[in-house]
Amino acid sequence: MITLLDVPNPAGLAENPLDALIVAVILLFILSTITEKFTELLRMYPYQSKMLGLLLCITLYILIFRTRSLQVDFPPKAFFGLLLCNLLLTVILVVNIFFIPKHKAGTSAPENGFTRLFSVLNNVAKGKVTTEDEKIKEVTFLSYMVGLVVTFLFNASLFSFFDTSNAAKLQPISPFASNQDFALDPKFFNFTFISLIGYLLTAFFLSFGARFFHDLLDNLLQVKNLKRKLNEKADYDFDKIEDFDNYLKAQERPLFEAFLRKNLEGPGIFFESKFPEMEVIVHRSDDSVKVQDNLFYQSLVGKRRTVKVSVKSSPEIQTLSIPLFASSNIANQSPFNNLHGTLAYQVFSQADNKSFFLTCYHVVWNGHDWDNFNPAQNSLIVHPIGGVNIGTAVKAIKNRLIDAALIEPSPDVDFQGLISGIGQVNNSRVLDPENDLNIGVKMNGSSSGKKLGRIAEFNKSAQIRYPDGQLRYLDNLILIKPIEGAFFSKGGDSGALILDSFDVAIAMLVAGDEADISLAIPFSTLRDQLNIKI
């Protein structure tokens, strides 16, 4: 008997039931694969397989009686049990070889009770026209019989998979006696009633097929991977399943966003993700850009999931500056293509408490170097109504995180500190992606007036069309969707301060598509990059 499976468990396996179960499933997967291959072979050559089986049965009879004649110490129960099993197998093969074809050849010769009882393999041949139920039953029976033989040859009792004390059994056993020519070794057939039950159970599970154990093993490894990730978080403590689910979602979301950025970022593309629904809406300004219908995402626990992709044709995302008009709020004294935007608010330097006006760099830009702002070049900023001088741009930054400018106020400006329709700003705060998702927000843009929206997503990246016609990236943006009306922002609103329901500053508007997409820079990013406060 091949004792491949009679090995001691690794150290600590008994203390880790999950590892023990994974080992058992791996062994069953290997054995089920062997069983399937042998079953396929028997189905491809059914007649030859039956004849070969009958020949093996006859050979086994010879070996049984030779062993008996040599007076080998063969336990009577094992001897007669082996003889009975071989006799049953012989009857099945003889009936299926010599009797079944005769009755199946014509429709006028019905089966009798004897042939019906033992006709268990006549429909297993590949390509044989028969009812599906008959074929399934007989193929399953054949698979079980093959699995039982494989189980016995490998000494694969189901109970031994979880037995940590079988190290002493690690020795090969031959079916032939070492001191007798062509005599059976009693040890090979010496098994207990419990081990017999174990063989029958193993064969039963092997008939499920390799695919079953492959999927089961995949699920167990995902559980093990999840357990490892939880163990890496030393202080996790969940009082209820909802806390556990929230923890998993918090860990999964940034990975999902990074996966989408890797697969969907490109010119004319902006996407909205729906998590944990594993869906994504792609806004495409150029219909010639190809977008996959589905993406395949490997989750935190190793599960392969399909991400459904919906595509919408949308206007291109661009800076929200428009030609100058009477109600404009803020612009360069020599505006580029008559562009203007919105003054965000008065802010103060954290170093010396000096005051500035905050807006977007592109609002006051006019031929400046995007990477190296020179305040001596076209830096006078005006309120477009009457061209009133409100200050001078002294600092401006455009990088992957911010698009912002600081304006040193003119001595003649009397800043009241109120936002029309909203009122006084009550400081600023850092947004929490877990708790602030879908909160209501508001702003007052110089073009749109007071608008209400909600935070739809965090940590967005976008390619934005700037006034000079070039596409430039911004990362870590907030996606805001409208609550009332068809849009939250439009051209001329760039630089508008965005507040939560408590009138606390949380972001500054920077771009949008003048439809249902508005993008904003978190105020915490502006604070850190410009060293400012409200």
> How does the overall form come out from the CA principal axes?
rod-shaped
Roughly what is the average pLDDT, rounded to an integer?
78
Q: Tell me how many strands there are.
A: 22
End-to-end distance: 82 Å
Description of the molecule:
The strands form 5 sheets. The protein has a 7-stranded antiparallel beta sheet. Strands 16-17-18-21-20-19 form a 6-stranded antiparallel β-barrel. A 4-stranded mixed beta sheet has the order 1-2-4-3, with helices on one face. Strand 11 (380-383) and strand 12 form a beta hairpin. The N and C termini lie far apart (82 Å). It is rod-shaped. Helix 1 (17-44) crosses helix 2 and helix 5 (132-153) crosses helix 6 (193-206). With 534 residues, the protein is an alpha+beta fold. It folds into 4 domains: 10-101 and 112-220, no CATH class; 247-313, no CATH class; 333-418, no CATH class; 422-533, Trypsin-like serine proteases (Thrombin, subunit H), CATH 2.40.10. It is built from 10 helices and 22 strands. The longest helix is centred in the first third of the chain and has 29 residues, at 76-104. The protein has helices at 17-44, 46-69, 76-104, 113-118, 132-153, 193-206, 210-232, 241-264, 361-364, 523-530, and strands spanning 269-274, 279-284, 294-298, 304-313, 318-319, 322-323, 331-332, 339-340, 345-349, 355-359, 380-383, 388-398, 403-409, 418-419, 423-424, 440-445, 449-465, 471-482, 497-500, 505-512, 518-522, 532-533.
Short description:
The protein has 534 residues and is α+β, with helices and mostly antiparallel strands. 34% of the residues lie in helices and 23% in strands.
